[in-house]
Amino acid sequence: MSKLDLLGLTLEETEDLVEKLGEKKYRGKQIFQWVNRGEKSFEAMSNISKTLREGLQENTFITEVKIEKKLVSKIDNTTKYLFLLEDGNIIEGVVMQYKHGLTACISSQVGCLMGCSFCASTVGGLVRNLSAGEMIDQILLMQKDLRERISNIVIMGSGEPLHNYKEVINFIKIVNNENGLKIGNRHITLSTCGLIPEIKKLADLLIPINLAISLHAPNDEIRQKLMPIAKRYSLKELIEACRYYLQNNNRRITFEYALVKGVNDQENHAQQLSQLLKGLLCHVNLIPVNTVEEAGLKKSNQDQIKRFQNILKGKGIETTIRREMGSDIHAACGQLRNSYMDQMQGL
């Protein structure tokens, strides 16, 4: 059989593995604790036998992601990482400092297939999915580098998390486990552009994580221009899936709305959006869009953003404007990776 990545196994999968290797089930918990502390050496696992360490060496490996580049914002101490994967691929991660602690934004794929016009992550298309272990190691590396615990996770970096459903769910189970990073489900946010079947599957798991929907338009016509996924699933279907998620988890849904000048930022768009979300337990996060030169999209001005917010709030919809963080270090998804890849290709 092919070797298994220990860092990408849930506690239950690790316990099953050690039993197959002829060991007691509790040894799985010990191994799980070692790898989720960031240990990469089997030899360092001092409380398990030499025989078991040899069995692990023969049948498993431990993913090792490395920091290729690190930038720290002089504005707000946001830290941006370029991570080098073992196959040479590059991904991004960001740590943002808030009063309530550190929030890590991690990638779930190398690149992205979704093709959203305002997102730099999708410019080069999808290369491959990340393993659960590669996602975990992003968190471990950030914690080790900053010498501080990550208290919140946002799966909102490069990639569409629900397009990598199995590995992302494993990741959530692993980081949530009390023998691992012990990050509560309510401190984990998954952002999706709206893969309907996977949203419903996630709802059925009854894992009460926070769901963020990349909405970005008040009607199907505009959404189809901005997001190819809208040609597969209508807004009516998306809102129905959100209602199903709320019915199963009763966790307020965040709708991400990137304001693009002259495209989706007018007062009639705000009126349409408030009608679309009427009656939902939700929150709207307005995002001044990052300029993506390839797509020719421009940011709305501050007055227009404020007017848009006031209309939604007037309709009883809780609305905030996202604070731009790390703007001096290309902290938005895909920006730093793209510039880095351009530099590499130019050498």
TrEMBL record:
Enzyme class label: transferase
GO molecular function, a single term: rRNA binding
Binding site for S-adenosyl-L-methionine: G159, E160, S191, S214, L215, H216, N290
Alphabetical keyword list: 4Fe-4S, Cytoplasm, Disulfide bond, Iron, Iron-sulfur, Metal-binding, Methyltransferase, rRNA processing, S-adenosyl-L-methionine, Transferase, tRNA processing
Swiss-Prot/TrEMBL GO biological process terms: rRNA base methylation; tRNA methylation
Other remarks in the entry: Reaction proceeds by a ping-pong mechanism involving intermediate methylation of a conserved cysteine residue.
Catalytic activity: adenosine(2503) in 23S rRNA + 2 reduced [2Fe-2S]-[ferredoxin] + 2 S-adenosyl-L-methionine = 2-methyladenosine(2503) in 23S rRNA + 5'-deoxyadenosine + L-methionine + 2 oxidized [2Fe-2S]-[ferredoxin] + S-adenosyl-L-homocysteine; adenosine(37) in tRNA + 2 reduced [2Fe-2S]-[ferredoxin] + 2 S-adenosyl-L-methionine = 2-methyladenosine(37) in tRNA + 5'-deoxyadenosine + L-methionine + 2 oxidized [2Fe-2S]-[ferredoxin] + S-adenosyl-L-homocysteine
EC annotation from Swiss-Prot or TrEMBL: 2.1.1.192
Protein's recorded name: Probable dual-specificity RNA methyltransferase RlmN
Cellular localisation: Cytoplasm
Residues at the active site: E92, C333
UniProt entry tagged with the keyword Cell inner membrane: no
Domain of life according to the entry: Bacteria
Record text on cofactor binding: Binds 1 [4Fe-4S] cluster. The cluster is coordinated with 3 cysteines and an exchangeable S-adenosyl-L-methionine.
Organismal lineage: Bacteria, Bacillati, Bacillota, Clostridia, Peptostreptococcales
SUPFAM superfamilies: Radical SAM enzymes (SSF102114)
UniProt domain Radical SAM core: residue ranges: 98-328
Its job: Specifically methylates position 2 of adenine 2503 in 23S rRNA and position 2 of adenine 37 in tRNAs.
Named cofactor requirement(s): [4Fe-4S] cluster
Family note: Belongs to the radical SAM superfamily. RlmN family.
UniProt xrefs under Gene3D superfamilies: 1.10.150.530, Aldolase class I
Organism for this UniProt entry: Anaerovirgula multivorans
